[in-house]
Write a structure and sequence with these properties.
CATH class: Mainly Alpha
Number of helices: 18
Protein name: Cytochrome P450
Keywords: Heme, Iron, Metal-binding, Monooxygenase, Oxidoreductase
GO molecular function: heme binding; iron ion binding; monooxygenase activity; oxidoreductase activity, acting on paired donors, with incorporation or reduction of molecular oxygen
Organism: Streptomyces broussonetiae
Number of strands: 11
Number of domains: 1
Structural class: alpha+beta
CATH architecture: Orthogonal Bundle
Shape: globular
Strand content: 5-15%
Radius of gyration: 21 Å
Family: Belongs to the cytochrome P450 family.
Length: 421
């Protein structure tokens, strides 16, 4: 057994960057690593696949920030950039009966039947957005930002329609979501972004309260108005925050990362086209190989906990290292760093943990998989010669170390030679 102090903490770069080199270095020293969070806050990251799987379902690991020692002791400043992850009132910060209550209120919108019913709308949106992407490329000299014109609006429109969010709010909500999850914000930026996000969602909720409709926000408001312990005002807004952010950011990164992977591995794209792998295989391998969320905050041991030989003290904020676990050689073999859409799933374990595990497994996972699968199939069917219009090394990483993707993805829809280049 080793203590948490046996390894010096690794300072996570608040501005983010590609996580894979750092993950490999940390994993080489063990499945659990002490890390330094913004503001010098001590934390831990669980990086190994098996260690993370056990940790995510451990009965003595909590999500409620009442267990966060530094927060409870007043050592977290109001403008700490990661404070929302700890204090937002919703499923991701609730335990036990509270978690089950909040999850059940939202879960009915994500049953297999309800998700399947969304398929025609997702296909319709995808077709329209591919047209928009083509127009953007025509206006841009043959090059367009796939992230902006395709990967972002698809999940944003879908989750907005589920929630009943009108189009005029959507760009603002995406912008604020980015600011809220950023780990490099100044205190002033963090406070302002959170206040504005709460204000915008409050305006949306007020409109729905006045004019209910057949959408999830109206259903949540009805639950709140029932009184008792169904849903408080804070939980209503907190649930909307979580739904907006998780409902589009994860799928946005997933689609973006899959396109990058396929463009960099044309042989793997060829396997799909030859019928040797499916688009669902592409989605799963992308989730494993380049997880859309890299280090997800927070979980807290309720007592000193030994994980893979390392002691994590009670009350420590712990990051779930999804991107590291996805490339853990101990779980995925010596070629874990290779993108392989024909990779067989291990019979004795889940293929990856990138959408969580246990009671807090991502509620929207079926929807994210459906959106990404349709998006990728239709994209490469309409534009079979699509290629990146910039070197992978020139793509700017996503700001912050929670999300894992790039800020933009310039693509060329047809080969340059076809335009006489």
């Amino acid at each position: 057994m080793v203590t948490s102090a046996a390894r010096p903490p690794y300072r996570l770069d608040p501005s983010g960057g590609c996580p894979h080199a750092v993950n490999a270095r940390l994993l080489a020293d063990g499945a659990v690593a002490p890390v330094e969070l913004p503001g010098g806050i001590e934390g831990m990251a669980v990086l190994g696949h098996e260690a993370l799987k056990d940790f995510l379902q451990h009965p003595e690991v909590a999500k409620n920030a009442m267990h966060f020692t530094a927060l409870r002791e007043g050592r977290i400043a109001p403008g700490w950039p990661m404070l929302t992850f700890a204090t937002v009132r919703g499923m991701t910060t609730a335990d036990g009966d509270d978690h089950r209550r909040l999850r059940s209120l939202v879960g009915r919108a994500f049953t297999p039947r309800r998700v399947a019913e969304l398929q025609p709308r997702i296909e319709e949106l995808t077709a329209a957005l591919l047209g928009d992407l083509a127009h953007a490329a025509e206006a841009g000299g043959g090059v367009a930002d796939l992230r902006r014109h395709f990967a972002l609006p698809l999940p944003m429109v879908v989750i907005s329609e589920l929630l009943g969010v009108e189009p005029e709010f959507r760009d603002r909500l995406h912008h604020l979501s980015n600011q809220v999850v950023a780990t490099d914000s100044t205190p002033g930026q963090a406070i302002a972004a959170n206040r504005e996000l709460v204000a915008v969602l409050g305006e949306i909720a007020a409109a729905k309260a006045a004019h209910p409709a057949d959408d999830l926000t109206s259903a949540l408001i009805a639950a709140r108005n029932e009184g008792g312990d169904r849903l408080s005002d804070q939980e209503l807004i907190g649930t909307l925050v979580l739904m907006i952010i998780a409902g589009h950011e994860t799928t946005l990164n997933l689609i973006t990362n899959a396109v990058r992977a396929l463009c960099a591995h044309r042989d793997q794209l060829g396997l799909v086209r030859a019928g040797r792998a499916s688009w669902a295989d592409v989605v799963e391998e992308t989730l494993r190989w380049d997880a859309p969320v890299s280090y997800f905050p927070f979980r807290y041991p309720v007592r000193d906990l030994t994980v893979d030989g390392t002691v994590i003290p009670a009350g420590t904020p712990v990051l779930a290292g999804y991107s590291a676990a996805g490339r853990d050689p101990g779980a995925h073999g010596p070629d874990a760093g290779r993108f392989d859409v024909t990779r067989p799933a291990r019979p004795d374990a889940v293929r990856h943990l990138s959408l969580g595990h246990g009671a807090h497994y991502c509620l929207g996972a079926p929807l994210a998989r459906l959106e990404a699968g349709i998006a990728l199939e239709r994209l490469f069917t309409r534009f079979p010669d699509l290629e990146l219009a910039a070197a992978e090394t020139d793509l700017l990483p996503h700001s912050g170390f929670v999300g894992n993707s790039v800020r933009s993805l310039p693509v060329r829809l047809t080969p340059a030679v076809s335009r006489g280049a």
